């Protein structure tokens, strides 16, 4: 299911539920609206992210098998009973989103499906810690990852009675998630966390994808781990930012996006946020960054003419220390 289809489905669900009762608790109505909006954003990020990690997997130094399935735990919410009103009862672990183009999209799965068992482990037997709301879903993902490493297949039992098998596809070792209460975007080496209020949600898809590609570049090159281990020296941070800027068009090209979207993103983002996320003493000015990206696109175009593919593992020049 593409993120566009998911968004239409979510809007329809919201209208349907709202139309059932005009006297619903206003607090619940606000929760429902927020819940559905977050799910739509998760679906959008999952689909864009999948395009990037799947299409670049041949060149990534570290890969893993993923299904494109994003799960959630009703018990991770302060009011799980409100979650059940939206998704229906039958289990706590449910499908939050499915990445477009992923193996999960080809499986007989849909949003709100309840997962009763993963690789033979019943999710109800995984105790939920009220003080650590996301602990149980993390354990579900650990079980799924182990299963995919062992035989490339994820077996799931649904509350509907169906048993589903989803094949894992080899992708760059990065996952994506939307974080509430933030308007930033960042990479930690294994994940890319996008703030729910990140302005990119209002951008064209390829420009938003450019922001994700920048963060994916950080994970591919192990920038977070390197900076954490050696100290975040100004020259080192600037070097990593330049590398991430320059790799953006390569990653976009392989994913079928216009490499020029990296320039458009920086031109849109830079003037408004030159003092924030992408600007400090450790970062070049946005106009300098545009020039750097444009120069890299020219190099990429020559590589595509000469070799027919954007193999950055061979032809991308790492930033000198």
Short description:
This protein has helices at 3-20, 26-55, 80-87, 103-106, 135-151, 205-220, 223-230, 234-254, 261-273, 286-307, 312-315, and strands spanning 63-66, 69-73, 93-98, 115-118, 121-122, 153-158, 163-167, 169-172, 175-179, 185-187, 191-195. By secondary structure, it is α+β, with helices and mostly antiparallel strands.
Write up what this structure looks like.
The chain contains eleven helices and eleven strands. The longest helix is centred in the N-terminal third of the chain and has 30 residues, at 26-55. A four-stranded antiparallel beta sheet has the order 5-4-6-7. The radius of gyration is 21 Å and the shape is globular. The protein has two domains: 3-171, PDZ domain (Pdz3 Domain), CATH 2.30.42.10; 174-315, no CATH class. The protein is of the alpha+beta class and 321 residues long. The chain has helices at 3-20, 26-55, 80-87, 103-106, 135-151, 205-220, 223-230, 234-254, 261-273, 286-307, 312-315, and strands spanning 63-66, 69-73, 93-98, 115-118, 121-122, 153-158, 163-167, 169-172, 175-179, 185-187, 191-195. Mean pLDDT is 89; it is low at 15-21 and 275-279.
List the helices and strands and how they pair.
Elements: H1 3-20, H2 26-55, E1 63-66, E2 69-73, H3 80-87, E3 93-98, H4 103-106, E4 115-118, E5 121-122, H5 135-151, E6 153-158, E7 163-167, E8 169-172, E9 175-179, E10 185-187, E11 191-195, H6 205-220, H7 223-230, H8 234-254, H9 261-273, H10 286-307, H11 312-315
Parallel strand pairs: 9-11
Antiparallel strand pairs: 1-8, 2-3, 4-5, 4-6, 6-7, 10-11
Helix pairs in contact: 1-2, 2-6, 6-8, 6-9, 8-10, 9-10
């Amino acid at each position: 299911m593409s993120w566009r289809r998911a968004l239409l489905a979510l809007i329809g669900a919201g209208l349907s539920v709202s139309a059932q009762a005009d006297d619903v608790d206003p607090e619940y109505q606000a929760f429902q609206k927020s819940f559905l909006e977050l799910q739509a954003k998760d679906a959008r990020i999952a689909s864009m992210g999948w395009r990037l990690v799947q299409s670049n997997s041949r060149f990534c130094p570290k890969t893993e098998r993923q299904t494109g399935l994003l799960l959630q735990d009703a018990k991770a919410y302060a009011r799980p009973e409100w979650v059940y009103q939206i998704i229906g009862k039958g289990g706590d672990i449910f499908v939050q989103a499915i990445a477009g183009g992923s193996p999960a999209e080809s499986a007989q799965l849909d949003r709100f499906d309840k997962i009763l068992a993963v690789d033979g482990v019943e999710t109800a037997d995984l105790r939920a810690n009220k003080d650590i709301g996301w602990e149980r879903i993390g354990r579900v993902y650990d079980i799924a990852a182990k299963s995919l490493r062992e035989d490339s297949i994820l077996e799931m039992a649904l509350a509907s009675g169906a048993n589903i098998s989803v094949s894992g596809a080899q992708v760059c070792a990065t996952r994506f998630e939307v974080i509430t209460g933030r308007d930033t975007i960042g990479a930690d080496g294994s994940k890319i966390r996008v703030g729910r209020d990140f302005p990119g949600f209002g951008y064209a898809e390829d420009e938003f994808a450019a922001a994700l590609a920048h963060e994916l570049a950080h994970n591919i090159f192990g920038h977070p781990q390197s900076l954490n281990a050696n100290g975040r020296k100004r020259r080192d941070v600037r070097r990593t930012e330049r590398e991430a800027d320059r790799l953006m068009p390569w990653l976009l090209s392989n994913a079928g996006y216009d490499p020029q979207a990296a320039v458009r993103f920086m031109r849109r983002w830079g003037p408004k946020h030159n003092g924030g996320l992408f600007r400090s003493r450790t970062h070049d000015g946005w106009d300098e960054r545009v020039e750097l990206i444009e120069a890299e696109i020219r190099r990429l175009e020559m590589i595509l003419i000469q070799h027919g593919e954007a193999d950055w593992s061979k032809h991308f020049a790492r930033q000198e220390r």
